[in-house]
## 1
Amino acid sequence: MGRCRGNAWWQGRFRGCGYRVTAGREIILDALTKTDKHLSAEDIYLSVKKACPGIGLATVYRTLEILVEMGLVLKFDFGDGRARYELAESPDKRANHHHHLICTSCKRVIDYTDFIEDEVELLRKTEKGLSAKYNFDIKNHVIQFYGICEKCRRK
């Protein structure tokens, strides 16, 4: 199995955090790079098992926790009993920030990126206020909205 040399955007982070770049870590990051879905550890395992038959599910779980700790991967709970993962930033360094709309009926997750100016200003003020009030240096935030999607409402 060859190394994923096209993913140099994250390799410096491993050294900076004191971790080695391993084939298993590379292939898991590669799987997350190639999708826009919110994958579970099991989804990732099934995807990488084809290219790396020797990898085990426990290794995938451990690796994902390391990647979350390093800030390369975000872990989400969408209320379906399975943790979901996605890259914290896009490989080409474009803004990857988005919020989630989660249907409580069909469990569909919609990435919401088309923020209007009022939303951006409200979040900026909220972060600034919270930072000052609690003397807290905010680096990121996660917002999830729960409701019923249009498809489920029509049923």
## 2
Amino acid sequence: MTEGTHGVDRLRGKTSLKEILEVATHFEASARDFYTALIPRVSKRIRYLVEELAAEEQAHYDLFAGLAQRGDIAEQVKVEIQRTASDSQFSDCIHLPDLGDNPDDQAVLQYAMGREHAAMGHYGELAETTPAGPIRDLFIYLASEETKHKLELEKIYYEVVHRGGGV
């Protein structure tokens, strides 16, 4: 491999924090819209949960939107960092499944757990690779939030699927 080709390969592996924030904002908006549309179609026993998920995704979207408006991070968003190993898995979550008109509780919970897991891993990796500052702090916060969400969803999944009970 020539030096020029190697340099191009390294550049392909880089992305700016601005691009990362744009993808993350889209990720949160797509989740919010997905859960909002799902609310009237899910069973009553998990409807409250889907409403909470939609609200949490809206809150995350608001965090990203607020950060994008801050003038004090203009230089930081130009910084390029290495793409994370979880980048494609995270991006894949933007493509939403068709759960039909009457989605099964188990399918909804499995999707939500998978999405939280992808976000948890991605935000955690970004927190490790992003330079110190408000964007890194946001990724640390979101990784923690997504971890809590995933653990809560796992508890609910166990109750609904394995015990067959209400939540």
## 3
Amino acid sequence: MNIFIAGLSYQISEPDLKELFEEYGTVSSAKIITDRYSGRSRGFGFVEMDDDAEGQNAIAALNEAEYDGRTLTVSVARPRTERPSGGERRDSY
């Protein structure tokens, strides 16, 4: 199960995120999304858990919970939709 987490502190690390979710089961990966140019956290990330029941327990327990001074939003991740690349922009006048 792929889980989306928003509202993360900019100081949280991937090992911290993994540890937070490991209280609810086995975590196969934890990824914090960072800005491509600055390398700074964008305040959200994803956790993958192999067992769907453990993932649902984690979502139920952590959604709207406070962590590191911030309120988390935790949900099942939606499949990524393709966005047009940012290379060419057309403005209408």
## 4
Amino acid sequence: MNLANYIRDVVDFPQPGVTYKDITPLLGNPAAYKEAVIQLSNTLVQLGVQKIVGIESRGFIFGASLAERLEAGFVPVRKKGKLPFRTLQREYELEYGTDCLEIHQDAILPGEKVVVHDDVLATGGTAAAACDLVRQLGGEIVQVSFLVELTFLNGREKITQYPVFSLTTF
């Protein structure tokens, strides 16, 4: 199954000149969604993963499914102010300004094998910030995974110290 067939382009979203890769057709097709989870989890099964970190918000969708399939814990990384317990924060650069991610301070134990997952790798800033949070807690990042990678934005350059897997590339 070619999963790229279930990812549509939305021109001029969220602003003029941007072509957005919309994964909702894939999410709405049970066979395509199942195949994506299987293919993503097959890259992880031999790594002894203990935690899957899902980045807000679409990283939660696949991250939770991967955690269940691998019998690992799921850890949400969220935007500032969304987590109810004590957190660590990491500010990172956006195209126009900055943003901040948070993780619970007790979400990952030192030495735990962790996969960081998000739906799209674009410029790499969000993934790099999430990886920094995992490392601050002492987690060992065994892979950073994505459903889609926009290769022309060179996001891998910000996470070169980790193994990276992308299911589809554009």
